[in-house]
Amino acid sequence: MQNRTITDAHRPHNPDNHKQYLMPARTIAIYGKGGIGKSFTTTNLSATFAMMNRRVLQLGCDPKHDSTTSLFGGIPLPTVTDLFAEKNAQNRQVTISDIVFRRDIADFPQPIYGIELGGPQVGRGCGGRGIISGFDLLEKLGIFNWDIDIILMDFLGDVVCGGFATPLARSLSEEVILVTNNDRQSIFTANNICQANNYFKTIGGQSRLLGLIINRDDGSGIAEKYAEAAGISVLMKVPYNAGARDMDDSFDFAVRLPELGDKFRTLATEILENRIKPCHARGLDFMQFVRLFGDVSDESPTPATPEELFGSHADSVTPIPDRTNLSQDNDDVKMRRCIEELSELEREIYRMSEEEERSITEIAAMLEREESEVRELLAGARTQLRKLFFSA
């Protein structure tokens, strides 16, 4: 996506002038572990933006397709996956009206729009591939040129499949927000997404991490301890609230409660007025992460032996043939192979920038070339690497 040339803070508030200032929607991907209140957070942020007279689209990107249930008062939306299969069987094209739905709420100045990408039934297909296909279809339907102010993408974060990293890999989301609780598994998921975003930046990804929302905050400070260690800003802490749970269970908006509404409105305002400085988050490697929760031994694990597992039958076990050369390359090996396919000059510039962390000015001086030429070659190298990496 191209960078926006006019910030939301400068958009006129007069709805009659809206068309005159039409520009690409602001896109925010919200990631979190399943079951921690990620959809609750996304839904109430959508409602808050709509209350502030913004045109909002909530895009559910979870095979469970339940992101927009509360947003639409308990009505489940037909999914892109199902509609595409149905239309394809009839040799018909999917249209916007087939998959995009609108809800008008009496006390909201703007309607709210929703889409559920959906996914295959359990055990019958790859959810990540469904996400990729769904985005391909939405792009063909012009989603990023619709008359929408903000698109909130509600993404499942505890799946490592590359399909769920689509907005990061393809820079479809300008910004990323992580949602977590104070438990280790949800924080581990947030750390994985942080590391994934850092990885995609090395091949030209442009998604910026805004920070972390702590939902159902119990005051233990565990998520805050992680955020400090990983270099991530805490955007909002939402304490557990029985009234909010009841509102959500009855398919209403928890932001109608003043104690929560004020928090969400403050965050929404900071987003709209660009007050949040994106994080240059380091993320933590596995050992750094687990040591946040206690002392961990440096000893290597004790290997099991064939004798203890097969017992008296150990001698009759057929050796497994060496298939090392047939194993799938890991991402680092794959990336190195892609880099080797660049031209010699592009390869040199890319390595000086990404591996040696030299500035454009330094590279230009060392190679005795114009900065504009170096910048263009680096951009071309990153574009070529994305194509090579994801087509391999």
TrEMBL record:
What GO terms in the biological process aspect are recorded for it? Answer: bacteriochlorophyll biosynthetic process; DNA-templated transcription initiation; photosynthesis
| GO molecular-function terms, A-Z | 4 iron, 4 sulfur cluster binding; ATP binding; DNA binding; metal ion binding; nitrogenase activity; oxidoreductase activity, acting on the CH-CH group of donors, NAD or NADP as acceptor; sigma factor activity
Superkingdom of source: Bacteria
Query: Which Gene3D superfamilies does this entry report, sorted A to Z?
Result: P-loop containing nucleotide triphosphate hydrolases, Winged helix-like DNA-binding domain superfamily/Winged helix DNA-binding domain
Q: Which UniProt keywords apply?
A: 4Fe-4S, ATP-binding, Coiled coil, Iron, Iron-sulfur, Metal-binding, Nucleotide-binding, Oxidoreductase
Q: Which residues form a coiled coil?
A: 335-373
Task: Show the segment(s) annotated as Disordered.
Answer: 300-328
Named cofactor requirement(s): [4Fe-4S] cluster
* Entry's family note: Belongs to the NifH/BchL/ChlL family.
| Name the record gives this protein | Chlorophyllide reductase iron protein subunit X
